[in-house]
Amino acid sequence: MTDARAKAQSGDVEGAKSALNIVVEAYPEIKSQANYSQAMKEFSITENRLAEYRDNYNQSVKTYKRYVRKFPTRLFLSWRGYEVSEHEYLDFKVDNSKATNLFK
Fold first, then answer.
1. What b/e sequence results for 60-94 when a residue is b if at least 16 CB atoms lie within 10 Å of its CB, and e otherwise?
2. Higher model confidence: residue 21 or residue 101?
């Protein structure tokens, strides 16, 4: 449990969720507790927020790249000495093969 808490505080949401699931497998009676249900709900909310933030970031990068490539903008920026920043899209791959027996 403390391992899950430490990982969550360091920003490793996936690691925290995995550590918590390992504890739950060792102690099945935890699943029936309200705290566990609340924690799983919060993990789900956090994962959804991260996905939304990642999508917003990727959209901003796309808009920026499109903007600096336009003809009058590109010419004006080069006259002003502006160097175009290179930003990469965030990619998050999910391994769905590990999602088994979720609702026992």
1. ebeeeeeeeeeeeeeeeeeeeeeeeeeeeeeeeee
2. 21
